[in-house]
């Protein structure tokens, strides 16, 4: 697979050691507008794709094929603007990860993000997450790194261990994943400024931070993140929340109802707009007591 201008551009941006701000995109118009407003990179948000493309919450319901199709739409709209694309857990065993990386690679992503949650995953800012053993995720990473046919296709390793295991475990995993060959390291959902600072000090590798509106992580400024040495700041929810607010406002104007009753104030509130409570009730009804899929 030949390299692409977008991948080369992302490498160049990282080499400059200036914070890359990547808005969260989820469809053709969000990608086009990101490009036309002068942004240097974009992040394909899995939560945004699930909600906007399929009317689903971010709890592992969207398939690898559906995500790869959306990648192609977004990279086509972005052109040479680098896309960092969420690929959840890789959608299965190492052989499934290989197929996912190949599909994302052929669709033109500049970087693919994989995480160490148990499948089916949850949004990183929802409760009750579980992670696989670190050695299992290292197998995922190994498969992803071997599957790419262009070294300029970067692999982002995300750990969700902060919530279920604590920050020490998350930092330990982050360094293990860097040692295993991940190009960019992503510790999901630090819960205060001290944790953000500690990750910056103790994790050895280019760092990505996730800034979700109403989420668990404080919304640090770009200047502060640059000072701490972070490489990339993704903002997955900004466009999605504004678009959702605009649609709710228009719909409530049409039938004369109060928009305030529908406005989300947290990731859980947002996902309930696309049926999370119903899906979790369905899961609880069908899963055995000791083998819940959620």
From TrEMBL:
Highest taxon, organism lineage: Bacteria
Database matches in Gene3D superfamilies: Phosphoenolpyruvate-binding domains
Molecular functions (GO terms): oxo-acid-lyase activity
A Pfam family hit: PEP_mutase
Name assigned to this protein: Carboxyvinyl-carboxyphosphonate phosphorylmutase
Source organism: Mycobacterium florentinum
Lineage, highest ranks first: Bacteria, Bacillati, Actinomycetota, Actinomycetes, Mycobacteriales
């Amino acid at each position: 697979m030949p390299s692409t201008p977008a991948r080369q551009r992302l490498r160049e941006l990282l080499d400059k050691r200036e914070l890359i701000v990547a808005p969260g995109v989820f469809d053709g118009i969000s990608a086009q507008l990101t490009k036309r407003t002068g942004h240097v990179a974009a992040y394909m948000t899995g939560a945004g794709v699930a909600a906007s493309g399929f009317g689903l919450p971010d709890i592992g319901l969207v398939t690898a094929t559906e995500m790869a199709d959306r990648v192609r739409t977004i990279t086509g709209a972005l052109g040479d603007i680098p896309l960092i694309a969420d690929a959840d857990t890789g959608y299965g065993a190492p052989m499934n990860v290989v197929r996912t990386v190949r599909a994302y690679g052929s669709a033109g992503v500049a970087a693919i993000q994989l995480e160490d949650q148990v499948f089916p995953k949850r949004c990183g800012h929802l409760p009750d997450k579980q992670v696989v053993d670190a050695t299992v995720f290292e197998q995922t990473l190994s498969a992803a790194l071997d599957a790419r046919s262009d070294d300029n296709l970067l692999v982002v390793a995300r750990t969700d261990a902060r919530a279920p295991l604590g920050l020490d475990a998350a930092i330990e995993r982050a360094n293990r994943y860097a040692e295993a060959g991940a190009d960019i390291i992503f510790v999901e959902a630090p819960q205060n400024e001290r944790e953000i600072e500690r990750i910056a000090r103790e994790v050895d590798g280019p760092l990505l931070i996730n800034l979700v509106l109403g989420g668990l992580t404080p919304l640090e400024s770009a200047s502060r993140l640059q000072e701490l040495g972070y490489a990339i700041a993704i903002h997955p929810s900004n466009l999605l929340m504004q678009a959702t607010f605009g649609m709710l406002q228009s719909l409530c104007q049409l039938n004369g109802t109060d928009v305030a009753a529908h406005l989300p104030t947290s990731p859980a509130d947002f996902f309930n707009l696309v049926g999370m409570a119903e899906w979790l009730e369905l899961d609880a009804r069908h899963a055995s007591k000791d083998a819940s899929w959620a």
